Amino acid sequence: MTSKEIHNMINAQINAELWSAYLYLSMSLCAESIGHNGISTWLYVQSCEEVDHSRILQRYLLAQGQEVKFSSIDDVPTHWSTPLDIMQSALKQERNITKCIHDIMQKAQAEYDYATSNLMSWFINEQSEEENTCQKIIQQYENASNTPCAIMQIDRDLGSRKYHPLQFKFPET
Fold first, then answer.
1. Mean pLDDT of 164-170
2. pLDDT of residue 10
3. DSSP assignment letter at 81
4. What is the rounded CA–CA span in Å between residue 34 and residue 36?
């Protein structure tokens, strides 16, 4: 069983992941409204993954005999001017999430909570991948230098992303 403080931190992270899902959904709709259907698809899939991340944390707390507590979700921004603006905001959010995950890991290690540390190791790897992906997309948009054909190609490439639910297995309890 996790400590009360770690339990509270994980509940806060569940809600942060759900807020991220709302943010990515808002970004997806904004991108679609300005004619960038490819990045809209990419962002929608990202929204689904954030819900999956929340679900992993929810199931972890349940497996630990802890209660999952949902909080109100604050409003999310609804407008960005360009796909580059969207991806810069996405990277900022991923960095915020990474910091929260690191804080949970640090607390778990201080308390010798190996189960939580193990779970947070998975999230740290996931966050590294997500930040790296956002940075690569930002670099593509920056390299495109507002060249319409290049931006269209980036959008087309991003639109090929498919949603694959995360397959995260917990040990039997």
1. 73
2. 98
3. S
4. 6
CA atoms within 13 A on the CB side of 80: 25
Q: Residue 135 pLDDT more than 50?
A: yes
User: In which element (H, E) is residue 26 found?
Assistant: helix 4-33
Among 47, 2, 171, which residue's Cα sits nearest to residue 11? 2
pLDDT score, position 1:
82
On average, the pLDDT of the chain sits at 95
Q: How confident is the model at residue 173 (pLDDT cuts 50, 70, 90)?
A: very low
Q: How many residues make up the chain in this entry?
A: 173
Neighbours of 12 (CB within 10 A): 16
Task: Give φ, ψ of 151 to 5 degrees.
Answer: -65, -40
Based on its alpha-carbon atoms, the radius of gyration of the chain, rounded to whole angstroms, reads 17
Residue 46 CA: distances (Å) to CA of 94, 134, 144, 152: 11, 11, 23, 20
CA 41 to the chain's CA centroid: 15
User: Whole-angstrom Cα distance, residue 39 to residue 83?
Assistant: 7
Q: Cβ neighbours of residue 162 under 8 Å, at least 6 residues apart?
A: 45
Within 7-159, strands assigned E span: none
Mean pLDDT of 101-112: 98
Neighbours of 45 (CB within 10 A): 16
